[in-house]
Amino acid sequence: MTNDPFWRLDEVAPLAVRSPDFADGARLPQWARARYAGGEDRSPELRWTDAPDTARSFVVRVYDPDAPTLSGWWHWAVYDIPAGVDHLARDAGTPGSGLLPPGAITVANEQGAEAYAGAAPPAGHGEHRYFFVVSALDIEHLELPVGATPAVLGGMLRAHEVARGFTVGLSITE
C-alpha cells in the first residue's frame, strides 16, 4: 500500500499537465477554494502537452484522496473533451460560463452539482492534496450510464486510457 492514489492504475504514456494559476505541489489560489471556505469555487486553468497520436478525446478529473471518507472526494469531472483541445480555461468548471469545449460533458461531483467544487478540507484535518488529472482516451465519446459518478467515469475510461498526467495543488483549513 502507498500514499500514491495511482498505484493500482494501469501504466500508460505520460502527459505533461500544468496550471498557470498554481505551481505543482504549491497552494491553490484562494479563489479555487469552496465558497463556504472563503473562496469562489472557480476552477484553475489547466494545460496539457505530449498527448499521443492515438488520443481521440480527453478527461479531466479533480480528486482529493485525503478527504476523511475512505473513498476520497471528487471535486470535478469532465469527459468527451475533443482531441484538438490542449487546455481548459480558468472558470471552465462554472456552469453556464461557456468555457468548456463543445461536446464536453460534466459529471456531478460529490455534492451532486455538475460543476467544479472548490477545495475545503475539514477544520483541523490538515493539508489536503488536490490532483488535477488529465487522461487521453483512444475514443471520441465515452458511453456512460445516466447519473454516472466520477468514480464510474474512472472505471469506464480505463479500457481506453492511452496517457495520463497530473498536477497537484494543496489546501489547508485557514
Account of the 3D structure:
- This protein has one helix at residues 150-157; strands at 13-14, 16-18, 26-27, 46-49, 57-64, 73-82, 87-88, 105-107, 128-137, 161-171.
- It is mainly β and 174 residues long.
- Strands 1, 3, 5, 6, 8, 9 and 10 form a seven-stranded mixed β-sheet that branches. It has a three-stranded antiparallel β-sheet with strand order 2-4-7, with no helix packed on it.
- The longest helix is centred in the C-terminal third of the chain and has 8 residues, at 150-157.
- It is globular.
Task: Give the tags.
3-stranded antiparallel sheet; mainly beta; 174 residues
| Gross geometry | globular
User: What is the first-to-last residue Cα distance?
Assistant: 30 Å
Multimeric status of the protein: single chain
Helix share, percent: under 10%
Count of DSSP E strands? 10
Summed over residues and divided by their number, the pLDDT gives a mean of 95
| Percent of residues in beta strands | 25-35%
Largest sheet: 7 strands, mixed
Q: What value does the Rg take, in angstroms?
A: 15 Å
What is the string of SSEs from the N terminus onward? Answer: EEEEEEEEEHE
Weakly predicted, low-confidence segments: none
Annotation field: number of helices:
1
Class by alpha and beta content: mainly beta
